[in-house]
Amino acid sequence: MIKKLIFLGIFWIGFSAKAQQPDPPGQVKGNEKPKNEAYLFAHMTHNDYGRLYYSVSLDGLHWENLNSGKRVFEDYKGHPDICKGPDGKYYIAGNTGDDAKTINIWVSEDLITWKKYSDYTPDLKSTPDYSNALQRIGAPKLYYDKDSEKFIMTWHTPHLDGTKEDPERYWASQRTLYVLSKDLKTFEGAPKRLFDWDMGTIDVFIRKVGDSYYAVIKDETYPTLYWTTGKTIRIAKSKSLLGPYSLPQQSISPNFREAPMLIPSPDDKIWYMYYEQYPGVSYGLSIADNLNGPWFQASGYTFFADWDKYSFPEKVRHGCMITISKKEYDGLVKKFGLVKKL
């Protein structure tokens, strides 16, 4: 009996050490050509917050630094967000700080050379039903809507300062604002609120899939037993770019996650949603076959190779992920050089 128990114990140790989850769905097999050939992650780093760095991937799961982990463009500051326009050019939005009055926009034909394109200074106080807005602009993001042939630029602006007794009220007071533009040089009217519900939201971006628009948000209410979705990534849905948007779905991520990023898988059948566990602790990945869910979380950051189904370079912080062509990937690697993991 004792020998049998010892054998079973050894068997279990050996089995558990080799056990691993199936690989995430969405990858191509054999000689099948991926519909999404490559990906760019434009991000900041833990030690150089607000500056522009690049990492790339061929499968949307495993990411490698470019440029020996150094900045790729010295003039940019902000939370990187890149959008491809109808002219085939790339646009990136940023600002020098949340207290800066102006949003800066740069343009590039190849994601390598960026040139200043325009500046936009929103009159925050003129926002309808939001005259108490503070002079703060957080994480501007861009999306080109083919149906309206317009860009929408979103950002978050609070209306309450934090206090020593309640520093969190500053974050709970964040509301998502937007402005429309045909060309990112002229902008239509005063900023407006994107959502008609009264809830703190930051890091919002929009995507259209099928006949629906999806707003990916961070719920900025502090989590409690009575608001369990606080500080998580959620999705709201609308038939129109400007809403009204449904109340957000249940949480996609655990609590204390922010800066969501969404990419389609190589076979274009699956969605990968990344988000950061702050402050700069790690990244999580949730996966679904449609944006209505359900979502499940992939295994990563375990530091066991057999269990990690995705990986990042060390100390990367939030930004944006976009699909790129293999030709664009090769051009970036040729220009900046790939930092291979050992």
TrEMBL record:
The keyword Signal applies. InterPro entries: Glyco_hydro_beta-prop_sf. Coiled coil: none annotated. Gene3D superfamilies: Glycosyl hydrolase domain, family 43. It comes from the Bacteria. Keywords: Hydrolase, Signal. One of its GO terms (molecular function) is hydrolase activity. This is Glycosyl hydrolase family 43. The lineage of its organism: Bacteria, Pseudomonadati, Bacteroidota, Flavobacteriia, Flavobacteriales.
